Amino acid sequence: MVQANRIWYNLMGRGLVNPVDDFRPTNPASHPGLLEALAKDFADHSYDLRHLILRITTSRTYQLSTEADSTNNEDSENYARASMTRLPAEVLLDAAHSALGQPGKFKQYKNIKRALALPGIKGAFLENNPHHDDRFLHLFGKPPRLLNSDAERLNEISLAQAFEMTSGETLSTLLKAKGNRLDQLLSDKLSAEEILAELYWTAINRPPTTEEQEVLLQHIADRPGKERRGALEDISWALLNSKEFLFRH
After folding, report:
1. Of the candidates 125, 143, 176, which is a domain's last residue?
2. 10-residue block means of pLDDT along the chain (249 residues)?
3. 138, 168 Cβ separation under 8 angstroms
4. Overall domain count for the chain
5. Are both 171 and 146 inside the same structural domain?
6. Is CB count within 10 Å lower at the N or C end of the chain?
7. What is the DSSP letter of 85?
8. DSSP code for 137
9. What are phi and psi of 93, to 5 degrees?
10. CB 245 within 8 A of CB 200
């Protein structure tokens, strides 16, 4: 039952028992019948996580729109609409590295290239000269994993996180890195339209709209020659700071 609640929480943004690990008689599930059904289905299928994830993601509740209206705007208890939640720290950092074609670097775990593979993250300021990827994870709430509880993770959105995404060292380093995806696209002698499509599909998994393409192609055309890379950095920066990239929806 605890694991079923955790999977529900990770997919839906709020646990049936909330906080997610706070199981006690005085904190009952919001929908006890649903939680019991999920736990039974999970056990009946040999505790197969893939089956449970498929069961939830193919449900009508999971597939609801995030759009608010007069019938669902105030109803967070009954999952009347999908909630937009920011990507977890590890997923967000890995996505940024993947979009720009660069592996992660972590001072504490030098052989690990993906944040999702890290067992935990120490307080960034407890280390001497931590790598900016370590600081990023700490800032966005990845816990040290000292407790067997999902409540250890901090999911609050802060102004410091906004500053990190708009002008922080991690994103700046990825954009400027030699041999990153921007350099690869420029070296392939692709047209501006092909480069723009590649950036969009890589970052937010869709092509640019007609309006976006018209504006951004003009931005690229206004910066020819060696300045073209700067135009692509601008576009990539904008995509990685868009809600489509930052939020799960």
Report:
1. 176
2. 91 86 89 94 95 94 82 74 83 94 81 81 56 84 65 76 92 94 92 96 96 96 90 96 89
3. no
4. 3
5. yes
6. C
7. E
8. H
9. -65, -45
10. no
Q: In terms of residue numbers, what domain contains 26?
A: 2-83
CB 30 within 8 A of CB 16: yes
Instruction: Output the CA–CA distances (angstroms, integers) from residue 239 to 1, 152, 213, 219, 242, in the order listed.
Output: 39, 30, 13, 14, 5
Cα–Cα dist 5/21, whole Å: 8
pLDDT in tens, 128-168: 666 788 888 888 887 766 556 666 667 778 899 999 999 99
- Contacts within 8 Å (CB) and 24+ apart, 181-185: 181/99, 181/100, 181/101, 181/102, 182/100, 182/229, 182/232, 182/233, 182/236, 183/229, 184/101, 185/232
Cis bond upstream, residue 88 (ω within 30): no
